[in-house]
Amino acid sequence: MSSFVNLKGSMQRMNSELQQVQLELLSAHCAVHQLRLRYSTEDLARFGHRDVLRKSARAASALSEFYEGLEKNIPSPEPSSPSSQPSSEQVALAVGWVSAYLQQQRAHYHPVAGALDPQPRVMMRPYFSKALLDQVRVVELKGARVAVPDFFREIRAAGFDPPEISHMDSVTFSDVVVFNHQLTLRALFHALVHSVQIQVLGLCRYADLWVNSFIRTRTHFTVPLEIHAFSMASRFLTPLAEKFSVEEEVLRWKQEGRY
């Protein structure tokens, strides 16, 4: 029994680390995408520091080779059943569950949440409005975890896999952000992007977009709402990054129908 428990614990740690690596890779992918939007390949090759370019290319090649080898050994998925897609009624029910969960958890954590400390507030100020930074409240669980929603059991019983929220650094409940471990600048920036998205889109629309995107992509890392948050957090962490308004970026994506 003890060997089984140890094996199960090792597998959980491995998958947790794998999720973290996926997050880092997505952040890197977003950073490269921003670079490609601003500079041509010719300019990068001609004017970029050669040593940096070569080391980056070698690292990317090594990663590609590693993951190609892994992909060849991943067992083939079982054939999809006709019921692999939820019905419109199930989707509508899930959207309602998510909306209610976000509201309930905000009410639960708000009484024990505190205002942003001065230092992270100063770091966030060039990107977010003073009104948002005054309004938002944060909670650090110090290694505890946000409770898994009760309706996840219903989702699994229906034959679908819900998102793994226990692996997330933080969860945003409108203007209340709960950190599973401790507040970091990257996790805070990412979470505040979601606060802006909820303000701009409205809670119900945010939940609708999140659920429908997750159903299409089957992983929260590739939900457009998440991709945009990862992308902007990556820009924020870039040395000497240009300042930008998160609200303007969210409004632009909304107008362009990119969510």
Write the layout of secondary structure elements.
Layout: H1 2-38, H2 41-47, H3 50-73, H4 88-109, H5 118-124, H6 130-135, E1 137-140, H7 151-157, E2 170-173, E3 176-179, H8 185-201, H9 203-217, H10 224-237, H11 246-255
Parallel strand pairs: 1-3
Antiparallel strand pairs: 2-3
Key phrases:
2 domains, 64% helix, 3-stranded mixed sheet, globular, 259 residues, mainly alpha
Structure characterization notes:
The structure is a single chain. This protein is mainly α and 259 residues long. It has two domains: 2-73; 88-255, no CATH class. 64% of the residues lie in helices and 5% in strands. The protein contains eleven helices and three strands. The protein has helices spanning 2-38, 41-47, 50-73, 88-109, 118-124, 130-135, 151-157, 185-201, 203-217, 224-237, 246-255; strands at 137-140, 170-173, 176-179. A three-stranded mixed beta sheet has the order 1-3-2. Strand 2 (170-173) and strand 3 (176-179) form a beta hairpin. Helix 1 crosses helix 10 (224-237), helix 4 packs across helix 9 (203-217) and helix 8 (185-201) crosses helix 10 (224-237). The radius of gyration is 20 Å and the shape is globular. Mean pLDDT is 85; it is low at 79-83.
Uncertain runs: 79-83
Figure out the total of helices.
Answer: 11
Mean pLDDT: 85
The overall number of domains is: 2
Largest sheet: 3 strands, mixed
Helix content: 55-70%
- Let me know the number of strands: 3
Strand order of the largest sheet: 1-3-2
End-to-end distance: 47 Å
Q: Could you state the order of secondary-structure elements as H and E?
A: HHHHHHEHEEHHHH
Provide the β-strand percentage band: under 5%
* Gyration radius, rounded: 20 Å
Indicate the structural class. mainly alpha
Gross geometry: globular
